[in-house]
Amino acid sequence: MSIDKIRNIGISAHIDSGKTTLTERILYYTKKIHAIHDVKGKDGVGATMDFMELEKERGITITSAVTNCAWKNHSINIIDTPGHVDFTIEVERALRVLDGSILVLCAVGGVQSQSITVNRQMERYRVPRIAFINKCDRTGANPDKVARDLKEKLGLNAVPLQMPIGLEANFLGVVDLIGMKAYYFEGSQGEIIVEKEIPENLAADAAHRRELMLDAISLHHEGLMEAMLEGKVTDDLIYQAVRQAGLAFKITPVLMGSAYKNKAVQLLLDGVLRYLPSPLEAHPVAHDIDADGADVALIADIEKPTVALAFKLEDGQYGQLTHLRIYQGAVKKGDDMTNTRSKKRFRVGRLIRMHADEMEEITCAYAGDLVALFGVDCASGDTFCDSSLNYTLSSMHVPEPVISLSVTAPDSKAEAQLGKALNRFTKEDPTFRAFVDPESNQTIIQGMGELHLEIYVERIKREYGVQVITGQPQVAYREAMTRRVEFNYLHKKQTGGSGQFARIAGFFEPSDEGDFTFNNEVRGGSIPTEYIPAIEKGFANCMKKGRLIGFPVVRFSVTINDGQYHAVDSSDMAFQVAAQGAFAEYYPKAAPCILEPIMKVSVEGPSEFQGSILATLSQRRGIILTATDDGLFCRVDAEVPLGDMFGYSTVIRSATQGKAEFTMEFLKYSKAPMSKSEQLIKEFQDKKK
Amino acid sequence: MLKKELNNKSPLRILENTTQGGLGKGNLGVFAARHGVGKTACLVHFALDALLQGKKVLHLSFAENAEHILSWYESLFTELKKAYKLESAADIHDEIEAHRLILNFTDRHLSYDTFKNKVKTFIGSLSFAPELIIVDGYDFEKADKEQIGHFKQLAVEMDAEIWVSFPLHGKDIVARKPNTLPAPLDRFNGLFSVVILLDSEKERVMLRLLRDHDRECVEDTHLRLNPTTLLLHENS
Fold this sequence. Notes:
- The structure holds two protein chains of two kinds.
- Chain A is of the alpha+beta class.
- Chain A contains 16 helices and 38 strands.
- Chain A is globular, with a radius of gyration of 30 Å.
- By secondary structure, chain B is of the alpha/beta class.
- Chain B is 39% helix and 25% strand.
- Chain B has a nine-stranded mixed beta sheet with strand order 3-2-4-5-1-6-7-8-9.
- The longest helix of chain B has 19 residues, at 66-84.
- Chain B is globular and about 50 Å long.
- At the A-B interface, helix 14, strand 36 and strand 37 of A face helix 4, helix 5, strand 3 and helix 6 of B.
- Strand 36 of chain A pairs parallel with strand 3 (100-105) of chain B, so a sheet runs across the interface.
């Protein structure tokens, strides 16, 4: 297959926009599968791309899945991704290796919180996109509003290329504004495309929308502009103009339909071929390690030396399966390649093309392909090259975890299994972390949300037979001084033999600049310069554990302006100890307070639940910042202490019949209220006893 | 400067003195001007002034997104902090957030009844009783006397002051006869207790008092809008 006939695309969106349902229809119409199964269908089979039992049971996509299909002599590699922010790493890794994307939006919900996140991710990796407004059959569907949302909320120059024929229960098909024809989808699964003239009652509207469309596109294509002036616009010219403008990120083509009702998916596939790039039009860049990381443009040429990126790992019964995107050259069974991070050479063993969880053995793959290898020891984000090259590709962005849980195995036998499980999952998923807290000796797991951790706890149980005991995550508090305090501290031990002597004087004060600032204002040599770093080190060490509740001290500035030394007994150690002593003695006098992490929480749901949403937040000491009502949906943004957010996903689910979703991200540290502080101090002191 | 001092020195105290002690609960006040002259800035400064006095403020807007309004508050608070060297600014900022609610409607053509129900549900679920309500971006240009009357009624029901922004066209300001309100504000004579016109002349925006409760007047309030900080200042 010629590389220009390959499309590598992702399907990304907010939760429940219809990504997996859309992918199922794509696989059906491209004859990759012979029957359509719904995401939470009555037949209990589940959609093709949701192959994990947990996915089928819950009706959500947890891991991204790769498949390949063919449409009109083109080969399309598709990665269906999850919509929950908990599984955002799957979207990151997919968009990192794909050339184009379909941004799916619900015709009712429009641009929602995760739509904004995935759009940002597409921007990050400069992935051209088509927007597909799905669910035009649902009550409240308003594709025009969604197209406006794309402009106003995502800043995209959205250009609808279609208009709906009817909406909601009366949604029958779409009008293609380029060919000016109406399309209907008949047959039991909408597989028969019927082209007709535009209904009379829609003709004027269609003509007007076409004008708007051409105006919008022609701003970015001189040829189209000239043709419009001369009255010589052809369909092919418009396709060309849309493609060019779309690949240059000047416009975002918008198509629409209903995947569930089997309408207009085939036209979307045509759009993928027409408007999304082939690997030849992507511009991947590697860095030459041997040339100080200089940029090297990769060429999708099968004759060139191989460069590929390992973007996903899966540990299964046959060993580690490594998913690769080949950017340059070819990968054949038996080839020698090098992992340029670990410098390890390996021979290509089994080479696989994936279709969801099914594997097809192949003997070679080429630039532009998405394939998988068995038996290679590597990490996510590693670059594989032909042995003649020493390139590295930039890895995917890995967001920081936002939530922690303590986990304990029920017995020592289970502990070993738990260890295995955590090793595997942390290797597969960089946003899932596990470590042992050195202070509490607890095993802590961290993730992107409650659902994220819930899924892993369930997988540990099902796949490793360990029912872990989970505990409330430890909130990362901080301590801070609120008052300036002068100090003057003498450290002296002179009881025979070499002693220690150091006196330091200065002041502590709260600071807005960074966590720790050290200022040396000693004059006249009262403390020799060589001891100043030791004093700074002493204070820096104290910062790690405050004296109120043992959490790090932040926003702390210390200035030393005087002191005293002894010619024999002064040393780095003496001044370091002096600093620690000064901190221990004077810190309580600086009126330290406890800071708690405050999260920016965004909850979106139907307007009818606005009251419930507000109540759930204010019950958690949330400060409502803004609420937006756009008629059917509302969005509430609030600042809520992290310590009060645990269990919130269950609460919001039950308060809104599962129709609201929330996201949260760290915002700032704020002073904890007196009652909370007293409780934390008491707990800390009880633990010390 | 401490918060108490700032409140005493605020230029809005001048406006209160000029308007017989301020707008008063149950009344409607309006900032009228051409687009882009500074109505939102004035409303947000008013809101901040009330928040700094410990009052609860409900900001109702009709904008593309609520973050935009939030950034107005952040921006003006930062300017206030700098201009008056406000002490304990971080704590004051937290207090302000706790006393302010912003409710944004993306549909500018919402019917008044739907709007009122949503507002009441919103504040009811939080048991929030605002003393000042800001309404910014509502399509008052197309409103009739009955709709404005509803807002006045709302002010009475909620026992709050309501300040709104009202867009004007340049030609209407120029065509205004002395001692009258510019069109289309003149249609609502009697419903707005205080009317302030933002009059841009040369490079300054002056606040002119066109109506003060039962007085029709054209008075210089001695306040101007600083085009850089977007804060209200005493005209000097």
